[in-house]
Amino acid sequence: MNLFTYGINHKSCPVEVREKLYFSPAMAEAAMKEMSGHGLIEEFFILSTCNRIEFYGTAQELEKVHEFVTGFLEDKCLVRREEFLPFVFYRENDEMVRHLFRVASGLDSLVVGENEILGQLREAFRLANTAGSIHAFLCRLLEKALKIGKDIRTKTKINEGALSIPSVAVELAQKIFGRLTGEKVLVLGTGEMGLMTLRNLKHSGAEIMCVASRNPETGRKVATEFGAEWMSAETWPEKMEAIDILIASTSAEQAIVRSEQIKLLMKKRRHRPLFLIDIGVPRNVEPAVNTLDDVYLYNIDDLKSVAQSNLKLRQREIQDSEQMVEEAVLNFKSWKEQLQARPVLQKFEKYLDDILEKELTEFMKETGLPESKKEKLRIRLRSKLLHHPHEKIKEASKTGGISKYLEALHSLFHLEKEESAEESRKL
Amino acid sequence: MNLPVLILAAALFCYAAAFVFHLWFFTRLQTHGHQPAFALLQAGFLLHTFYFAAEAVETGFFLPVSNLPETLAFFAWSIAFVYLTLLAKAQSESFGLILTPFLLILTGSSIATYHFANDPFVIPGNPLFVVHIVSAFFAYASFTISFAAGILYLIQSHELKMKKTGTFYHKLPSLEALEKLVFLPMIWGVILLILALLIGFVWSKYASGKYWLFDPKTVITSVTAAVYAGILSMRYIFSLRAKLGAFLALAAFCVLLAGFLGVRLTGSSHNELEKVKYLETLKAHPAP
Fold this sequence. Notes:
By secondary structure, chain A is of the alpha/beta class. Helices cover 59% and strands 13% of the residues of chain A.
């Protein structure tokens, strides 16, 4: 059973090439159906996202796979091979398993530890199942990949700590207010970063209350998108008493939120915490606001600094995650070796059963013992004789030394070699 | 060493191990690391409960505050009970880390003083007396939780103000959650302490004919209840700032601690050294 992966990803391939090779879910399903009928490839699936287009499969003759998949890509995507071949990576067997496990764990992602890839891999699994292009072997591999991806995210902090400005803002809001459940948000300005932060906050459970902008047309459009109220640049302070989070993202040249203003406001608000996110440059909120009790002010540099700190934290978790991936690769290799050894072991067991049957029948005749005793004796002898070889082969499957034991079984007990190899291929 | 002390020592061991685990996982930044620590804490609490059962079997009655070691052990048990059962949803590495030292110190002191303690006294068989003691101790335990949450609130608030995103920032619950943990146990504590005081007054009336005796313990407990009730009224009527509330929770706990420890130096009827004499006088005036 030979495994391969062939693909391009964000690490080496520019987006101009990636977009040409992108497979939509429908295209991927059709391609997998087509591939599954081809003699060279046994099992096959495609993982196609904005950051990677990767083909995973099993084949008997690996040397032909590279050329075959290159031609397939040329045909399907109508792109000349010269355009994408310099960026293609190709891995076989254990390297392929390691790569898939790293992808599932988010270790190979652009943003290390991101969660989306796990959902994308699950979707690829579903499409491949629908197309009928994967069977027992790749099913098992994909299940293991999804499991290691989930385990790493549960047991390490690889996916914790926000890395983008909008998600850092949400993380901080959650550190102040707990799980967001309708905390009221006011946004000043309709800058792109402000709107992204707004989307993240809304998605996390906050309520977008007001959008204040100088341009009524843009302001109303944004307000409608978030189900909020539009306010002019002059009237927004009226709403400050009711809000919990303020995003300031205007291009004003001077601070528009003053310390004195917030100081008075906090008394009216009965000192409910207030979170101010200032992503305007120049700054929209006077820095002195942060000295007020129960007011938390973060400007763009503060948010970046939190993101940097989170990134460092994730990097510390990478080592633990890589170790978990290595263990999973070793376990899968062990399972694969044991699977391949099964035909030989079955032959050996049959060989042993034949001898036991013959000898025990004669023994029963000579001693006159009842038939029920024979079965008990057979089971006991069989399990004792097989226990040690099974353990040794299991052990060797982890260290890669299984073939010498299989060879030994063949030569010591004259097992039929060719047939067993054929059966192994069938598996 | 008798069986109850052995059980208490086993509970102490579990608390110590829970503390080490909490500390380890707190610094390791592992998300779900507190689970083994929490399991150890539960095991310790279970053993701690068995200790009181074993004591009851040995002495023939159940009153877990009849001498100093038992008082300390019962205080620790009350804290563990409030944390593990009533505040089950609030469990976290940080909260466990700050509470386990209390359990360690109290349980350890209980074992250390066990052999120097007076023989437990037998109290008149009145369930009101048990309710009086249990509610007072649960009130103290609730105030301890409130104190611990106050410390964590101030740390997290400082981290957010200073824009530090270190271990505390990641491990501590949100300010909102911590604020609840400061004030909710404080409400329970005030209710329970007032209940304990009222029962005490009724008891005193029947025992000595007066509701109010100028007993140092009664005075300091009344002051403690008034301080905590004052903080709560400031919070809910006058919108006391959460940060100031957390500071006041710390200050009020110092008053409580001073009362709890200071009363041992006085001739209070609540002091075990005086209890035997006091209870002998009570026998002449049995309570209803």
